[in-house]
Design goal:
alpha/beta; single chain; disordered C terminus; TIM Barrel; eight-stranded mixed beta sheet; eight-stranded parallel beta sheet
Length: 445
């Protein structure tokens, strides 16, 4: 398929799901000049250069991932913008947010611009940098947030680095509010976390590993919620791990505080018990918590207080996971399992398919305040076409990320992207292409 972005493309006969506009129907989608030209009815004079037969496929907006580390600049021995945006395109992700803990840190316009330029050169996904809240993530000196916003930083945050005290938190939130900048918070009290590496519970005790209590998250949430209410800042809690934190944020939302939150897809499937046997692939930060936490997070996602799913993608080189458990680096390569894990929530009855797609599209778009994640006429043509039942195995031949650090490695996953378009340009296409053998995926499994 020619990938020139001015092509007129007809995606025919798919199940179009656009949660932002309440659409869930078998309709045709017409794209021209990088935008949506028509839904169901062809625009006047439209003649397709390319026709994609999407029978038995879901057609939806490209996914928006609120947290994915690309390891560039600074850690290209782990991955690169080119490798990870290629993996994103394969996963149906057209927009992703890059946390500020790169090397150098995203605390200057030059670094933010470099990341966006590298992403544009790779041409596979839109990368939105999250600027550092403090210089060098030092927790003390506020960054030039207005300058970061001016060069495309969609939010500011301090990643995993703690702030020195609550007065600095207050000033940071006030400064961000002045510039209408979203503040992304990874809630974790550093004194309660200490040297912990797993959830503080039965398993940690049995394995003799230092634990991270639930209160490391909930204390941080409680403190920050009070400051958010005082300052009026737009704030987002990223990668929740505990049901209690989700309940606290839901209560704050009900009281009118402008706050949102997300959860990594793997937190809705794995628990602390998956660490058993010292499986370093499950060494994560925040840690995997209890089955009760997992179920509470699922409920919050279903009820909508958690409005977005993310991958929390953290690719590592093999050696990073080969030491004793506590000495291994936390994190999981997770872009390419984002869709299958999300579809598993549909299979488990947690979400309907439109709800699941909303948590990957319109939900994160609303959090970021961006006109993405929808397929209205005139919208940017970021499109994902996937087959919900196609099975594939997480192995070298089916995996594009340079990170193989996932407990799902070697397992069968269900749900495969067939086509990803970024502003009307084909950035990923599975072979055989949907047009090669119309209906070929029907009944494949």
């Amino acid at each position: 398929m020619n990938d020139h972005d001015s092509l007129r493309i007809l995606i025919r006969g798919g199940r179009l799901i656009d949660p932002a506009h309440g659409i869930d129907a078998i309709v045709d989608l017409y794209l021209a000049q990088g935008r949506v030209a028509g839904v169901d009815a062809a625009p006047a004079g439209f003649q397709a250069d390319t026709v994609v037969d999407a029978a038995d496929h879901v057609v939806c907006p490209g996914f928006i991932d609120l947290c994915a580390r690309l390891r560039e600049p600074g850690q290209t021995h782990k991955a690169s913008i080119a490798s990870e945006t290629a993996a994103a395109a394969k996963a149906g992700v057209t927009t992703l947010c890059c946390p500020p803990d790169t090397s150098p840190v995203i605390d200057t316009p030059a670094v933010a611009t470099l990341i966006q330029e590298r992403a544009e050169q790779a041409g596979k996904a839109r990368v939105l940098p999250i600027g550092a809240l403090t210089q060098q993530l030092n927790g003390k000196d506020l960054s030039a947030m207005a300058a970061l916003k001016a060069v495309g930083c969609v939010a500011v945050g301090n990643a995993h680095a703690p702030l020195a005290n609550s007065q600095i938190w207050r000033r940071a939130l006030e400064y961000a509010a002045t510039h209408d900048l979203l503040v992304v918070i990874r809630p974790e009290d550093p004194w309660l976390k200490e040297q912990g590496c797993v959830h503080e519970g039965v398993l940690a005790t049995r394995l003799g590993l230092p634990g991270i209590p639930e209160t490391a998250e909930t204390v941080a949430v409680a403190q920050t919620l009070a400051l958010i209410e005082q300052t009026g800042a737009r704030a987002h809690f990223g990668q929740l791990s505990s049901g209690r934190a989700a309940a606290m944020i839901a209560a704050a939302q009900a009281s009118g505080i402008a706050v949102s939150c997300d959860v990594a897809a793997h937190q809705l499937h794995l628990t602390e018990m998956d660490v058993d046997g010292f499986d370093a692939r499950c060494h994560l930060r925040p840690p995997l918590r209890t089955a009760a936490d997992r179920d509470a997070l699922r409920l919050a996602l279903a009820q909508g207080s958690i409005a977005a799913l993310c991958s929390d993608h953290q690719p590592h080189e093999p050696d990073a996971k080969l030491d004793t458990f506590i000495a291994t680096e936390p994190g999981m390569a997770a872009l390419e399992t984002l869709l299958p894990l999300t579809l598993s929530l549909v299979t488990d009855g947690v979400l309907s398919l439109p709800q699941a797609i909303a948590r990957l599209t319109s939900g994160p778009a609303k959090i970021l305040g961006l006109p993405l994640g929808n397929l209205a006429v005139g919208a940017v043509a970021d499109v994902c076409v996937f087959h919900a039942e196609t099975a594939w195995r997480a192995t070298d031949g089916q995996w594009l990320s340079r990170g193989r650090n996932t407990p799902f490695w070697g397992t069968s996953q269900r749900g495969a992207v067939r086509l990803t378009l970024l502003a009307g340009k084909v950035v990923y296409e599975a072979y055989p292409a949907p047009t090669a053998m119309p209906g070929a995926e029907r009944g494949k499994d």
